[in-house]
Amino acid sequence: METLISLVNKIQRACTALGDHGEDNALPTLWEALPSIAVVGGQSSGKSSVLESIVGKDFLPRGAGIVTRRPLVLQLHKIDEGREYAEFMHLPRKKFTDFAAVRKEIADETDRETGRSKQISSVPIHLSIFSPNVVNLTLVDLPGLTKVAVDGQPESIVHDIENMVRSYIEKPNCIILAISPANQDLATSDAIKISREVDPRGERTFGVLTKIDLMDKGTDAVDILEGKSYKLQFPWIGVVNRSQADINKSVDMIAARRREREYFQNSPEYGHLASRMGSEHLGKLLSKHLEQVIKSRIPGLQSLISKTINELETELSRLGRPVATDAGGKLYMIMEICRSFDQIFKEHLDGTRSGGDKIYNVFDNQLPASLKRLQFDKHLSMDNVRKLITEADGYQPHLIAPEQGYRRLIESTLVTIRGPAEAAVDAVHVILKDLVHKSISETMELKQYPTLRVEVSAAAVDSLDRMREESKKATLQLVDMESSYLTVEFFRKLPQDAEKGGNPTLSIFDRYNDSYLRRIGSNVLAYVNMVCASLRNSIPKSVVYCQVREAKRSLLDYFFAELGKKETRQLSSLLDEDPAVMQRRTLLGKRLELYRSAQADIDAVTWGK
């Protein structure tokens, strides 16, 4: 059992070292889950004397007003033999054998945190005392409750102290040591009043009655000590502290304990209670009870630690790694983040993630619909055919077939396909841009660095813009190639004799009649439809080759080339992480270190049993 108290002591010290004082609601706290004993009492209740009696040493600052202005985590370690000494956690390599120096260091360390003012602070001081005259025990000495502010203190000090005390004792894992003076009415006790508020059934409260020897003649505290006046689950304990005269004379604490025992044993009022009275009994009782509470809490503590470690690791993973300090590390980090983005972008195109199917929709629906809306038959109306044929003939009518007229009709019709071809290029460009922005938002690492996110997004869009221009040029060339060289075989297969619909014997004047022109329009429409069907297949190939394939292959190539030229300062500007995120990661890292250390310590104790 002794090991369990040492275990909690160790975890408490780690909590303080890593900034866990149980205050910050934004972070999980281990401090509040640890069983502890909080010493509560009003000013002049004899609280300090009780602690010194348990320890057997004068070591606490004394004076008028509020002397304890920071929580003091007092960890007592029983040693078999040797000289008594004390250690502060903030002075880990210094042993104090002079307890007057301990008192001075408590006052000095309080001033370092609060200044020379009379303000209070919730940051605890950790003091360990090693002595053969103590039991293994940990106590948290809290500032004394007061009703008025003294000179130099704000009016809020009364409520500030009460709130601090309440923040400790309202936790279900806190054992309350309520100190009340016997020479005052128990109904006015500050310690009992606040303890009752947080522990109305007295299940966590130990009542300690001080100054029994200073009660008015003819009065005693038997009813209180027997639990008749105010019942608690645990028996009340009476103590007799040294008087101020004893303190001034530096009466030995061991001698004071002996006098305390004799007082109860020889007292006619308290003789029957003597076996459970006194500071020695109080120390042993608290030590035993704390061991029992710790043992009962270990399974729940292990479960809490495991759960919290998982939560901390998850959040740290979401926040990402900290920024590297050297230029090479920064460059590598940026490249890795960009590769993550690039991989996500490719997954969208390849179908692992959604979005790439929209490109196929452009080719399968949008492009055919755009070509269909061109309505070539209207462009090849009788009037337009007549106009272009006659204009092409010039002053000499064609002799056999209006070849120039055919070419003009075909060229003027095919040029309209440029519109749908450009629209297909632009539609795919818009989809690729949307996928870039979507991939940017899905790249967790880029959320850390706003400037890098903007730069990567701009670089990717610039690349897509260049690819669009190349794609547009290549795709329009496909349309222009069809206009620049006609497929002769198509026209050779057209019927040439009268039986098959040809009119080779018509006169020059008959060659411009409606039937003849209608035949020309029909032939041109058939040819254009053939070309259109071919382009419907070749335009997607060009777009995919120039845009989709290139985006997958070299989306950030230009950005990488420019990145290699940047200096350390410029690389740092790209990794301008939000300071709040940096601070959060640091705090989470410390808290995770605390929980892992606590897990290892608890496992070592539980597995060692």
TrEMBL record:
Family matches, as CDD domains: DLP_1 (cd08771)
Any one of the GO CC terms: phragmoplast
Origin: domain of life: Eukaryota
Keyword Cell cycle applies: yes
UniProt KW keywords: Cell cycle, Cell division, Cytoplasm, Cytoskeleton, GTP-binding, Hydrolase, Microtubule, Motor protein, Nucleotide-binding
Domain GED: 517-609
GO BP annotation list: cell division
SMART domains: DYNc, GED
Coiled-coil blocks: none
Subcellular location: Cytoplasm, Cytoskeleton, Phragmoplast
MF annotations from Gene Ontology: GTP binding; GTPase activity; microtubule binding
Primary location: cytoplasm
Entries under Pfam families matching the protein: Dynamin_M (PF01031), Dynamin_N (PF00350), GED (PF02212)
This protein's record includes keyword Acetylation: no
Residue stretches making up the Dynamin-type G domain: 31-299
Protein name according to UniProt: Dynamin-related protein 5A
Taxon lineage: Eukaryota, Viridiplantae, Streptophyta, Embryophyta, Tracheophyta
